[in-house]
């Protein structure tokens, strides 16, 4: 009987990790999409502006779909018994800001002053959404399920440091471009 219970716990943990993996992919794809317009991103240097825009939209769309699928799976898995933790609240804030950024991004096709204003709103909401997402990611690293999953406790501080450095690199470039006009 113990083996069956142990197996079921293993299956449940695999399912939980898979659901959270979708949300984690958001944290990988969205910064790549933001970075697609940056001069620091070597892979997009030979691309035209149109190709960079396509890559940006594609990566952001797939990242947001991963977040929606993962969040929906977690909500269904918990049978709508959502916890109001700081991790959950920052995740909701990040989602709202990212969706606002998507909305303002689709409105940047105009010309002149209104286009620049909408683009800056798009960039600022996207940056704050990504900052909230990074904070959510870091807070998620300290959840008991992650501590059980990561065998070495020293890995988590390295992930936190990497997230801080990567977030700083991703956020500074669009803000600098937005301030230039």
Automatic annotation (TrEMBL):
The Cytochrome b561 domain sits at: 26-141
Protein name as catalogued: ascorbate ferrireductase (transmembrane)
Its record classes its membrane topology as: Multi-pass membrane protein
- For this protein, the parts annotated as crossing the membrane are 57-76, 88-108, 120-142, 154-175
**The enzyme's E.C. designation:** 7.2.1.3
Major localization class:
membrane
Q: Which GO terms describe its cellular component?
A: membrane
Cofactors needed by this protein, per the record, are: heme b
Q: Which organism is it from?
A: Parnassius mnemosyne
Q: Which GO molecular-function terms appear in the entry?
A: metal ion binding; transmembrane ascorbate ferrireductase activity; transmembrane monodehydroascorbate reductase activity
Task: Name the Pfam families for this protein.
Answer: Cytochrom_B561
Upper taxonomic lineage: Eukaryota, Metazoa, Ecdysozoa, Arthropoda, Hexapoda
Keyword Iron in the entry? The reply is yes
Q: What class of enzyme is it?
A: translocase
Q: Which InterPro entries match?
A: CYB561D1/2 (IPR045150), Cyt_b561/ferric_Rdtase_TM (IPR006593)
| Keyword Membrane set for record | yes
What keywords does the record list, in alphabetical order? Electron transport, Heme, Iron, Membrane, Metal-binding, Transmembrane, Transmembrane helix, Transport
Localisation: Membrane
